[in-house]
């Protein structure tokens, strides 16, 4: 039975329009992750920073940091430059509780599927080999104490190095030959700091100095004076000394001479 006063053809057109509208809305429902959900951590270069000091601050390998940001072997950076502290393509998974609309399941077809044509499989490209961790270039017996004195604080995951006591002004010497890659006070918690690059994998750091006697880019010999001992956070004379391998702290005591 029809509805009085309403044309049947008009009702059919109205029903069809509503069906298409609802279908279009359903297909448009999707979840887009916010940009912040996939953004990795970045660091904005400040005056006085070097690539080595930034990598040191975040316990990263400076070579990886350079690779992630397309920086050449010169490792030059400039203030205001934004550096990614993560590899491209490494993004966190969507937050829990987020819903992602699924595509509607295809309806079964009464037509039998066509047989696939015989084709030669395309060889998949092999992934680039992961570089192996380099072996320490400097082992036990190749390091020397940067200063002689009592160990005021032992190595731990928190300290990342050792604190060696002494007197203000005591010469601080290079524990091994290398190149000065940082000299400054931009790293919080280290005071006036010197970082020496000994090989592609090894760095050493000398913190809480009163005065620095070397410049960035300078070649230094083992035992050469780098700085003068200053005061630590508790106003006690000390040197904070670290050794890093591939950006990660290692216990210096295991590499330094026993006597």
Give a structural overview.
With 259 residues, the protein is α+β, with helices and mostly antiparallel strands. Among the domains are: 35-84, LysM domain (Membrane-bound Lytic Murein Transglycosylase D, Chain A, Roll); 151-253, Glucose Permease (Domain IIA). 15% of the residues lie in helices and 24% in strands. It is built from four helices and twelve strands; from the N terminus they run ααβααβββββββββββ. It has helices spanning 8-28, 35-38, 51-57, 62-68; strands spanning 42-44, 82-84, 151-153, 162-165, 171-173, 178-184, 192-197, 202-212, 219-220, 225-231, 237-245, 248-250. The strands form two sheets. Strands 3, 4, 5, 6, 7, 8, 9, 10, 11 and 12 form a ten-stranded antiparallel β-sheet that branches. The termini are far apart. Residues 19-39, 92-103 and 125-134 have low confidence and may be disordered. InterPro entries: Cell_wall_metabolism_enzyme, Dup_hybrid_motif, LysM, LysM_dom_sf, M23ase_b-sheet_dom. Residues 91-103 have a biased composition (Low complexity). Residues 106-115 have a biased composition (Pro residues).
């Amino acid at each position: 039975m029809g509805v009085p006063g309403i044309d049947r053809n008009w009702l059919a057109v109205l029903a069809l329009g509503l069906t298409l509208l609802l279908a279009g809305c359903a297909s448009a429902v999707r979840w887009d992750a916010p940009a912040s959900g996939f953004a990795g951590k970045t660091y904005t270069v400040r005056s006085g920073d070097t690539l080595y000091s930034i990598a040191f601050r975040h316990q990263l390998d400076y070579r990886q940091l350079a690779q992630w940001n397309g920086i050449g072997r010169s490792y030059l950076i400039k203030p205001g430059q934004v550096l990614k502290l993560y590899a491209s393509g490494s993004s966190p998974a969507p937050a829990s509780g987020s819903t992602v609309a699924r595509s509607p399941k295809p309806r079964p077809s009464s037509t039998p599927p066509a047989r696939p044509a015989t084709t030669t499989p395309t060889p998949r490209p092999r992934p680039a080999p992961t570089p192996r961790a380099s072996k320490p270039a400097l082992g036990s017996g190749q390091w020397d104490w940067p200063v002689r004195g009592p160990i005021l604080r032992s190595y731990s995951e928190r300290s990342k190095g050792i604190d060696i006591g002494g007197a203000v002004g005591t010469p601080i010497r290079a524990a091994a030959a290398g190149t000065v890659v940082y000299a400054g006070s931009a790293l919080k918690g280290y005071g006036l700091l010197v970082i020496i690059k000994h090989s592609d994998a090894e760095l050493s750091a000398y913190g809480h100095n009163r005065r620095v006697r070397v410049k960035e880019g300078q070649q230094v010999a083992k035992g050469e004076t780098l700085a003068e001992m200053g005061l630590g956070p508790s106003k006690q004379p000390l040197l904070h000394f670290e050794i890093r391998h591939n950006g990660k702290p290692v216990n210096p005591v295991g590499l330094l001479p026993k006597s």
